[in-house]
Amino acid sequence: MRALQHPDVEDLRLPTVLSALADPVRLRIVAELARSGGIVCGDFDVPVSMSTLSHHLKVLREAGVLRVTPQGSYRKHELRRDEMERRFPGVLDSITSAIEAP
Amino acid sequence: MRALQHPDVEDLRLPTVLSALADPVRLRIVAELARSGGIVCGDFDVPVSMSTLSHHLKVLREAGVLRVTPQGSYRKHELRRDEMERRFPGVLDSITSAIEAP
């Protein structure tokens, strides 16, 4: 499985990150990743088709929010928490905490 | 001057707030408001026309990020910092701090 492109941490842009996060399904994906540590593609619990899920994961990856690593025939998805924290301190963590707000 | 509508704090939605903030000009407006405390419309230092500025201010107001108060023949704009902090702790503050990241 070919490796996917990920932006370098110094190339992350705040408007792009916020735009990637400004969607209810993508926030749910981020919340799941925050809780679980890492998820392979078929294991996300979101009410969308696989192709829609793939699109959302791509938006988050291209914005620098998550990293995708091939694992055998699967792809593992993890938040780039440490890098995001270094680049935009508190932003991803506070948003992750706020996702569960009623 | 008629009063403008502002969403109640319990009606603020995280995707809407993030979407409002996911724009370089609106982030610049927010940074200016964070620095200054409050700005009347003609005093923003952003490289856009007055009608474009008005549009951006409306998006931020409708998302609940700022409050507009008539002051004589002007409108004063202020961040709704305390309410945002209560609803989504750390989100607006961390984003405001991150705006200046290179």
UniProtKB/TrEMBL annotation, chains A, B:
Alphabetically ordered keywords of this record: DNA-binding, Transcription, Transcription regulation
Protein name stated in the entry: ArsR family transcriptional regulator
Matching PANTHER family: TRANSCRIPTIONAL REGULATOR, ARSR FAMILY, TRANSCRIPTIONAL REGULATORY PROTEIN
PROSITE patterns to which the protein is assigned, alphabetical: HTH_ARSR_2
Organism from which the protein derives: Saccharothrix saharensis
Molecular functions per Gene Ontology: DNA binding; DNA-binding transcription factor activity
Matches recorded under SMART domains: HTH_ARSR
Domain HTH arsR-type per the UniProt entry, residue ranges: 6-99
UniProt xrefs under Gene3D superfamilies: Winged helix-like DNA-binding domain superfamily/Winged helix DNA-binding domain
